[in-house]
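User: Sequence recovery, please. Input:
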């Protein structure tokens, strides 16, 4: 019985500890080991596998088909013998029996038009067609396909330190992104009957095997992206002779596939600090009309990358410029059809250059020789050294401000993905926030350095408040598997980016945060970090205990709603009877009057004691506010016992304020309080979140000032994501809202088109 009682008490104590907001995360994070140190750094026994690829690809522009032969060399750097290998077959998401279609929750109300139903009923014979898998002797290898995963069974285990090479021949029908959707595929241009291909996830790819999960073999359902090992690539891509190709890595044979003039422009671009057009719009338009029947083969090599992607089209305009990072020149390039101009020619490559420079400052120096932005409609997707981006003007060349900022944002974001997760290689299939959230945060920093007061969509704390105050049933913790997240954009992009911004601006300060964040990036560049590695490194490099923050922002669905519930005002009693009795008299005179007393002054003409003075005794005649000799004597006695320093302090006119705060939303945060004084000046008080460490629901704090305060405001700079600003002020302040009785008719005319119409009207046209 005694042992049982002890066990119950121990369990209760543990449960209670786990429920406190300042409890450490030790019981929630994996135990440090030889592979991953307690500091958040890779352990002394850390390892990772290597996968090298040699590929020969043929793009059939008539059939929209891709054929490939790949040779994979897989090196086992783990301490474990491997009896089989797992590969990802991401194109199998387009199989007719794909789980991604079957598990989609649907209602008829989701289909509002015939086109919606046609898209839902669209037939597409997708998925990999595996023709053969052989060893390097040409002997067939045993394999088994489980939806988007493929297991290759080895004749004998692959021992630690060994490698194995094998060959896969495959093909698939490329998907129409406008009809089928997807991260990869083609866009068809009906006006000139040409295709623009943005091709990725196009080949069977090795899965990650590591110390955390063993084989990372979660099925691809569409949302959770890709975690891949690093390796070297040699890729030959055969396309129509008039196509221009952009791809991961450096092209090895420009000399044989570009014209002499294009090669001259290319060499000029490598030395230029501003974009140089390599393939002009006129050259692209000529190619659109004369569809070549012959082919050319473009050869690319890349080193220490986790993936490969390419784009191909005869519609491509191509420009480039250099950007120096550290002591290395990177060639920044853009490929876009004429439909992207004037936006793309004006901005894309400059944005690429700015992005890799800014990200390098906050993370690690960009290590690759090129950085590429490719334009295709309605997309934003990233791969090593290359990304596919939307942002298209109207047919007349005009565009809205929203379209411009949308294009800027998507290019910065997707180029930024070179760092998260292409270099700092987190598991996207499991933790979307580790690449999207971290990337969105640095995207915000990059946007702000691109244009002053840039209207970033995510990052500032106040922008996440609406989401966090929403119905909890529709919100997931950030630490949720990618496929199970509710409100994907807010959860995986917005909230973690906001959390990091709050850490940087409010909890840690910029200097500490930037050092710790850069340390994390440097530690895990070209490696496979986990959330625990990030959490631990941020604390290890800053000496700031952040467990309370991770617990609140990453593991819970609580929100920030801290209320300033009460303010009490005190002044020190000077003991001087003349001052104190005058203060009392003034205070009594300012008391609100009871309505009965007010009305009695006129309704009661004369009281009894007003008629008969004989009934008035000592108390009726006493002057409460008169200073007498005894008061003076007592004051003199007080003065004799009080030091000059204490007396000076008592008479200094100090104003004391006791502020009470309540944690309504659940997330404890630092208290940032702005006091506004009677003379119009202000002072900001900053109190760390640890003020809540003992009492998590209600706390109070005393402030001492030399002058009178007329108002207090909590979170004056909108830096804590407080979801209810109405309870942040004293005295309470009402904020008006404009009420519109009649809505104006909406127009699709953008401001540039409106200006053109105005100029035409002014000309009398």
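Assistant: Recovered sequence (765 residues):
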């Amino acid at each position: 019985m005694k042992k049982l009682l002890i066990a119950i008490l121990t369990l209760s104590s543990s449960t209670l500890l786990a429920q406190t907001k300042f409890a450490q995360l030790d019981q929630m994070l994996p135990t440090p080991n030889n592979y991953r140190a307690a500091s958040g750094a890779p352990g002394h026994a850390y390892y990772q596998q290597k996968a090298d690829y040699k590929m020969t690809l043929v793009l059939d522009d008539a059939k929209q088909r891709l054929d490939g032969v790949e040779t994979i060399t897989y090196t086992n750097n783990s301490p474990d013998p491997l009896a089989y290998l797992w590969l990802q077959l991401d194109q199998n998401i387009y199989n007719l029996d794909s789980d991604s279609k079957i598990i989609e929750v649907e209602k008829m109300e989701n289909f509002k038009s015939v086109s919606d139903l046609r898209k839902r009923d669209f037939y597409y014979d997708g998925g990999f067609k595996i023709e053969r898998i052989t060893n390097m002797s040409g002997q067939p290898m045993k394999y088994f396909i489980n939806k988007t995963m493929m297991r290759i069974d080895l004749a004998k285990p692959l021992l630690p330190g060994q490698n194995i090479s094998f060959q896969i021949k495959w093909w698939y029908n490329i998907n129409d992104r406008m009809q089928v959707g997807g991260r990869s595929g083609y866009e068809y241009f009906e006006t000139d009957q040409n295709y623009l291909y943005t091709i990725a996830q196009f080949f069977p790819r090795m899965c990650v095997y590591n110390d955390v999960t063993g084989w990372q073999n979660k099925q691809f359902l569409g949302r959770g992206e890709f975690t891949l090992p690093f390796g070297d690539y040699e890729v030959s891509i055969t396309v129509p002779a008039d196509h221009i190709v952009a791809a991961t890595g450096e092209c090895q044979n420009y000399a044989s596939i570009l014209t002499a003039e294009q090669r001259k422009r290319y060499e000029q671009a490598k030395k230029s600090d501003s974009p140089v057009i390599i393939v002009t719009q006129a050259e692209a338009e000529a190619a659109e009309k004369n569809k070549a029947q012959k082919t050319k083969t473009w050869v690319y090599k890349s080193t220490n990358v986790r993936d490969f992607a390419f784009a191909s089209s005869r519609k491509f305009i191509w420009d480039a410029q250099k950007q120096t990072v550290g002591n290395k020149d990177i060639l920044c390039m853009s490929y876009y059809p004429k439909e992207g101009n004037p936006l793309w020619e004006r901005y894309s490559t400059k944005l690429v250059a700015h992005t890799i420079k800014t990200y390098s400052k906050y993370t690690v120096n960009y290590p690759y020789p090129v950085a590429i932005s490719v334009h295709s409609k309605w997309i934003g997707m990233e791969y090593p050294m290359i990304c596919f981006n939307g942002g298209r003007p109207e047919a007349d060349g005009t565009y809205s401000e929203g379209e411009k900022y949308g294009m800027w944002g998507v290019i910065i974001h997707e180029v930024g993905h070179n760092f998260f997760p292409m270099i700092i290689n987190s598991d996207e299939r499991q933790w979307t926030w580790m690449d999207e959230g971290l990337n969105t945060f640095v995207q915000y920093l990059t946007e702000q350095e691109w244009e002053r007061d840039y209207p970033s969509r995510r990052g500032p704390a106040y922008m996440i408040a609406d989401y966090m105050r929403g119905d909890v049933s529709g919100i997931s913790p950030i630490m949720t598997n990618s496929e199970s997240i509710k409100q994907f954009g807010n959860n995986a992009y917005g909230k973690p980016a906001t959390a990091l911004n709050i850490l940087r601006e409010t909890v840690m300060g910029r200097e500490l945060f930037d050092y710790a964040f850069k340390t994390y990036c440097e530690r895990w560049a070209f490696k496979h970090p986990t959330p625990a590695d990030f959490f631990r490194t941020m604390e290890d490099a800053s000496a700031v205990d952040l467990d309370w923050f991770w617990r609140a922002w990453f593991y819970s669905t609580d929100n920030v709603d801290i209320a300033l519930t009460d303010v009490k005002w005190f002044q020190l009693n000077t003991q001087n009877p003349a001052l104190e009795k005058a203060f009392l008299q003034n205070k009594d005179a300012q008391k609100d009057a009871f309505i009965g007393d007010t009305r009695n002054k006129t309704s009661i003409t004369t009281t009894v004691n007003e008629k008969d003075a004989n009934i008035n005794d000592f108390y009726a005649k006493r002057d409460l506010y008169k200073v007498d000799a005894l008061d003076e004597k007592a004051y003199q006695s007080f003065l004799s016992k009080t030091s000059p320093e204490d007396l000076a302090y008592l008479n200094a006119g100090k104003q004391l304020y006791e502020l009470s705060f309540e944690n309504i939303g659940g997330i404890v945060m630092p208290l940032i309080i702005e006091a506004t004084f009677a003379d119009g000046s202000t002072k900001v008080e900053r109190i760390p979140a640890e003020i809540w460490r003992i009492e998590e629901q209600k706390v109070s704090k005393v402030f001492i000032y030399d002058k009178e305060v007329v108002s207090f405001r909590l979170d004056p700079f909108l830096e804590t994501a407080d979801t209810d600003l109405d309870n942040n002020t004293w005295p309470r302040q009402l904020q008006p809202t404009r009420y519109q009785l009649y809505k104006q008719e909406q127009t699709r005319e953008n401001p540039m088109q409106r200006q053109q119409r105005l100029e035409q009207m002014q000309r009398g046209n």
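The CA atoms of residues 55 and 149 lie 20 Å apart.
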